[in-house]
Amino acid sequence: MEPLTQTKAALGEHAGALVAMDVADEAAVTKGVAQIEAEAGPIDILVNNAGKASSAPFEKTESALWAEMLASNLSSVFLVTRAVLPGMSRRGRGRVINVASTAGLTGYAYVSAYVAAKHGVIGLTRSLALEYARRGVTVNAVCPGYTDTPLVADAVANIVAKTGRGADEARSTLAKVNPMQRLVTPGEVADSILWLASTGASAINGQAVGVAGGEVFTG
């Protein structure tokens, strides 16, 4: 089943307008956002959740990997937000929520390109929060730790391939980074996003909210 069909099936009656686009391609984003607004009306809540993670020692980080990490994790946020924010600003309301990572708050070895991109997401979040604070728009980020998603499944497979350890041991290694000794669940990340989109979070702006069981602290 194609990803868009899977998404429609999962959302059911809540699916609304669904448009597939390459969020790292400027022309595709412009066309896609216009199509969504034509089908569903103005966008009041934007969640930038696209991303990729690849690892390599810094000296083996090729330019192509560096460019891919920045395009997928940072330029995508820039392009989609730039397409949506003007409408929010004109209407005097809107929420932009960027899904970053604990990698946007601290450093990790062997993922320098990914860390650099996620730090960029946090910087962009803070800058836009100040720029749009008087226009009824808030801009925040959530920063999950290792979360039980296909991205972590890929990380587990990579550990298994490179170290020969079993999958369970590899997952346990990642889980131990969290002081709660477990992976974060997708639902926990979603709940944080829902809160930032709610009226109760109207005064929350420019924040990077860690969703990682205490792995990192923000301040």
Give a written overview of the molecule:
This protein is α/β, with parallel strands linked by helices and 219 residues long. 49% of the residues lie in helices and 10% in strands. It contains seven helices and four strands. A four-stranded parallel β-sheet has the order 1-2-3-4, sandwiched between helices. Helix 3 links the parallel strand 1 and strand 2. The termini are far apart.
Defining key terms:
219 residues, four-stranded parallel β-sheet, alpha/beta, 4 strands, globular, 7 helices
Précis, in short:
The chain is of the alpha/beta class and 219 residues long.
Topology:
Blueprint: H1 3-11, H2 26-40, E1 45-48, H3 63-91, E2 94-99, H4 112-131, E3 137-144, H5 150-163, H6 167-175, H7 186-197, E4 208-211
Parallel strand pairs: 1-2, 2-3, 3-4
Radius of gyration from the alpha-carbon trace, in angstroms: 18 Å
Strand order of the largest sheet: 1-2-3-4
Mean pLDDT over the full residue set? 91
Residues in helix, %: 40-55%
Major beta-sheet overview? 4 strands, parallel
How does the helix and strand content classify structurally? alpha/beta
Count of DSSP helices?
Answer: 7
